[in-house]
Write a structure and sequence with these properties.
alpha/beta, Rossmann fold, seven-stranded parallel beta sheet, two-stranded parallel sheet, 9 helices, about 15% strand
């Protein structure tokens, strides 16, 4: 069994790769930072191989899929992604376009290409790492929340399509709240609620995927947050969202 993990150089992606090896999988580690990939490959030994790839570039996503054709990938983990905090009028447009390319376009392209492969074999797994943010609007992190909304929505639609076609291919969206990774440093925010560690997040994500769950949400607090959203008007939820996000601003 072989899995492909994007964003494997740190955080959730790195710990998902570790957890997969512990479960008997071989892994292809994908990220931009070759030095970090090599460190992880050295740790995981013969069960890991590395591909340096910047998935924010469309052509590199296409090439990655082409290269992987000979590897018989059975599990795709789309984990590459990052965030950015600030008023929408003040954040970097260039950085936001890179975020959209990484958080949306790369996930879209790789999901489509590998799903087509999996459908032909009628087996395989896709884990799209989203966020609890995917169910909300996010003042002060408008673009990031919107990208995760896309991933959550797309994954849900594909899940239903697979079900209607009687396919044995499985797809899930992992939707955690705060996780202790490099994310906050890159996004220039700080946690406003206690995070879970990335190892716990990785275990939860893989357990949920193998169990066939659509949305995998760790912790009762995050599940409760999603439930409460259904009870309140959208404007009220967004108002509270701004207050929550403002506390995270470094």
């Amino acid at each position: 069994m072989k899995a492909l993990v994007t964003g494997a150089s740190s955080g959730i992606g790195r710990d998902i790769a570790r957890a997969l090896v512990c479960r008997g999988w071989d892994v292809v580690l994908v990220a931009r930072r070759a030095d970090k990939l090599m460190e992880l490959k050295k740790e995981l030994g013969k069960h890991a191989s590395c591909v340096r790839c910047d998935v924010s570039h469309y052509d590199e996503c296409i090439k990655l899929h082409e290269v992987m054709q000979k590897h018989d990938i059975e599990l795709l983990v789309n984990c590459a992604g990052f965030g950015l905090c600030g008023f929408f009028t003040e954040t970097s447009l260039e950085k936001e376009m890179e975020m959209i390319d990484t958080n949306i376009r790369a996930v879209h392209v790789l999901t489509k290409l590998f799903l087509q492969d999996f459908m032909l074999k009628n087996k395989g797994y896709i884990l799209n790492v989203a966020s609890i943010a995917g169910f909300f609007s996010g003042p002060l992190m408008a673009t990031y929340y919107a990208t995760k909304n896309y991933v959550v929505s797309m994954t849900g639609a594909i899940y239903e399509e697979l079900k209607r076609r009687g396919s044995d291919v499985k797809i899930s969206a992992f939707c955690p709240g705060p996780v202790n990774t490099e994310f906050n440093k890159v996004a220039n925010v700080k946690f406003s609620t206690a995070p879970i560690d990335s190892k716990t997040a990785a275990t939860c994500a893989l357990d949920g995927l193998m169990a066939g769950k659509l949305y995998i949400i760790p912790t009762f607090k995050m599940k409760g947050l999603k439930f409460v959203k259904r009870l309140l008007p959208d404007k009220t939820v967004t108002h509270f969202g701004y207050t929550f996000q403002k506390k995270k601003k470094s």
